Amino acid sequence: MKKYDNIIFDVGDVLLEYRWKQMLMDCGLSEEEAIRVGHELFDDNDDLWHIFDLAIMSDEEILNTYCKKYPDDAEIITFFMHHGEFMHVARYDIWKEVHRLKTAGYHIYLLSNYPKSLFKKHTEYADFMNDIDGLMVSYMINITKPDERIYQALCDKYSLDKSKCLFFDDRKENVLAARKFGMDSTLVTDRNFLLNELKKL
Q: What's this model's pTM, rounded to 2 decimal places?
């Protein structure tokens, strides 16, 4: 008898590979410039990307705020925000394992921080979406991981027993929050590690 009934996945750097630096370099930036713009996008001291995930401002409001704050990089930031479909790469081997788990009788769920527009661009053609039983994404409830309320929201929505769930995430704070909530969780350190962990199930 298996220990878990429900396998829960984060999306970015778990089911998908993020390639934001390469995307920026594809636009003509040097590696150093790409890293700098990446810091502006993801590590902004006003937490703009976090606000983007929370969906408490519109995409255009977020973009305008970025452009006003970083006028020298407004053009590349605009391209990046408008073309999120170039930001990720499929992890087909992981998707095959997700499908195997589904056919083996596990229930599959997503729990991720995403703005609505980017989530659609990253998942609308992803095979794993055919295998999921449900999802809770930050934009839906204006709450992000590692806030305990988003874990609770997923469990409440689908009547999940958290003791029967296993959660995979690439960020330590999200894994620790899940464990504190009472849900077993594994920190995804890289693609091969995740693949090996899934094959154990």
A: 0.95
